[in-house]
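STRUCTURE REQUEST FORM
Protein name: YitT family protein
Source organism: Streptomyces flavidovirens
Requested output: structure tokens
Priority: standard
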Amino acid sequence: MSRELTRRLLQLYIGLALYGVSSAVLVRAGLGLEPWGVLHQGLAEKTGLTIGVVSIIVGAVVLLLWIPIRQRPGLGTVSNVVVIGVAMDGTLALVPDVHGLAGQIPLMLAGIVLNGAATGLYIAARFGPGPRDGLMTGLHRVTGRSIRLVRTAIEVAVVATGFALGGSLGAGTVVYALAIGPLAQFFLRVFAVPAPENGSTVVAGRMRDRAIIPR
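Status: completed
Returned output:
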């Protein structure tokens, strides 16, 4: 196995694991979750399943939606479905709830920064988009609507549904929405792996242009 492939695989799985950890940290902070986390938590409240298991199920369902829009999954896509949910449940089993803003706010901020770093790690590994990002890009291609419009429509629908089901919507959700783009942009540059075709690195600017918030 080449050194580059080893690095990419390590980035992929470390990034996905840290993404699950960061999502769990936001749950324990109790100040609001990222958009898909709101949906996962709401479904977990209604079904009695753990939020990590719900994340896996939702990811698998979203992946099935790729079929009619002819999206092709990669190793990173399938791994995304499983690893994030497992890491999330594992972290929630170890980390207790935090009470009081003096602890909640730093924990929330740490979770958001860690999420940005995790995003940069696994996307820069270049093993394919997560199921939710693939749905977005596929709908963009099929409908001809802008990435920004498609993304916004999906996020609004997800947050509204999750909140109606009892998911946690709060200051953390707003801070996440504002901060994750710049954070992911920064960490994509930090963790960029040279592409074999021309020696260039992953084009972090693509994320900015498309307003992509990974998952």
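Reviewer notes: The radius of gyration is 16 Å. The mean pLDDT is 87.
Form closed.
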